[in-house]
Specification:
Two copies of one chain form a homodimer.
Chain A (H helix, E strand, L loop, with lengths): L6 E13 L4 E12 L6 E7 L1 E4 L6 H13 L5 E8 L22 E10 L14 E5 L10 H18 L13 H12 L5 H9 L4 E7 L9 E5 L1 H7 L9
Parallel strand pairs in A: 1-6
Antiparallel strand pairs in A: 1-2, 1-4, 2-3, 2-7, 5-6, 8-9
Chain B binds a DNA duplex through helix 4.
Chain lengths: 245, 245
DNA sequence: AAAAATAAACGTAAAAATGACGTTATATAT
DNA sequence: ATATATAACGTCATTTTTACGTTTATTTTT
């Protein structure tokens, strides 16, 4: 009955990026493909999150950081551990497939799920060994394991979190327009926002700093560029205790 | 290097309750005591969270539910999985002590931490085998393992969450006064709230329902009793997309 | 070079929510 | 009856939000 031995321990990373051109919140996924050698029938043909076993002397956070670095080459990105997934039958459908190495029945794989926010421009997707690819959160392909659920729960957490903290700027280029910010909120939250009110609200923030630059290469009036100052934000930040139930 | 074998898997439960008399947010903790048989020197003398190994065919959620039931007899309480703790040296200081059965060095214990919100009145602390005791969150005793950190992180999550969701009512009796609600917010958030403004705000909520009852046994003007209607809340609830950064 | 088109950027006013504070009402205790 | 303590209500100024209309700057078209 009691089970004080043995499980697999892994981390999985939901990597979010924002495409300012298509105005789409994207998730970085890895292609899985495996065919039967004789019949050539595809056994696995889907996408999954990046993840890996946690090394023996590694903290959970470090493990997630390592996995992201291996995939993207990036470190220091916004990272949040948002949930552990560990139902006993979590990977049972997949148990003789790849990624799950030498697993026997009844071996539980607990995964600690993180999400990362990064600037799409920082990642070179074409140049990696993982066949990684960005997928719009609203048009996810066939997803393996229970990773669809993990992605959607990460997304829910992100939706809540972006309302109360300026994490959105982790997803934007260093220099952005007010409309970029609005597009991003609209994509994440799947809502429409009044541009005039939104603009005023954002511009009034002390930590949104107008630059001496405008957009280049646009075929209409170029917009003012801004940057986000984390320093200023942290200095003037004071926790709001506004009860909103 | 790689570690695809094995670790201990447990759940730990931070149980929150509110004492309307002392106006204190409390945590339910279990006494640990162990003395050296010869010298009688105390080896362990502190408090810890309830927790246990996850059973072989048990989901993480079910495991937490079981642990709470064993401690309090209660089921169906508000429950949230808020973080996994799994640093490789997490329990190393404690490795030859009780609770950690037959552990060897280098065995990692990952714990999935939950917090529960319950009505203090529902729990009979005196009548349990665990020597469980309520402790004000602001006057915690000596705490074993890394459970102090776990408690404080649960508390942080609760503080954030109670601002945007009416989970506070999980901590109050079924019938409560407006001042009870205020006391609870003040305790949790460690702030002072203007009674008149707070009262207006709360009373205006459709899901706060005045009863045909007043306080009894108080030595001053008895206050109106209210109840919280989860049904009405869920019916009229619509996600607010107010961006507050 | 002027006009048209388009998106950026600014403005205004009503409504709602919040914050700060004064006053009244109702029960119990003396 | 009167005092007392707490519950409960009220008012007003300020801030924030919502809902729109207007102007400005730049590019493209004529």
């Amino acid at each position: 009955m009691k089970n004080n031995l043995i499980q697999n321990l892994s981390v999985d990373c939901v990597v979010f990026g924002f495409d300012t051109n298509t105005k789409s919140l994207n998730v970085l996924l890895i292609k899985r493909f495996l065919a039967d050698e004789k019949t050539n029938t595809p056994l696995v043909d889907d996408y999954v999150l990046t993840g890996y076993h946690v090394y023996e002397n590694e903290s959970l956070d470090d493990s997630a950081t390592r996995v992201l670095k291996e995939l993207t080459g990036l470190t220091g990105q916004y990272k949040k551990q948002f949930k552990a997934f560990g139902d006993p039958d979590r990977l049972n459908n997949e148990k003789d497939l790849i990624w799950v190495e030498n697993q026997k029945f009844n071996v539980r794989t607990v995964t600690i799920a993180y999400y990362f926010l990064l600037k799409t421009e920082d990642v070179d997707v074409t140049n990696n060994t993982y066949q990684a690819k960005w997928h719009p959160i609203n048009q996810l392909p066939k997803i393996g394991f229970d990773h669809k659920q993990i992605i959607l729960e990460a997304y829910e957490d992100l939706k809540t979190k972006c309302l109360s903290e300026p994490i959105i700027f982790e997803l934007l280029p260093d220099k952005f327009t007010i409309n970029d910010v609005q597009d991003l909120y609209e994509s994440i939250l799947n809502i429409e926002i009044d541009n005039r009110n939104f603009r005023r609200k954002v511009i009034n923030k002390k930590y949104i700093i107008p630059l001496d630059e405008k957009q280049v290469g646009v075929s209409k009036r170029p917009a003012q560029l801004y940057m986000f100052s984390k320093d200023i934000y942290q200095k003037i930040y004071q926790k709001s205790y506004l009860i909103n139930i």
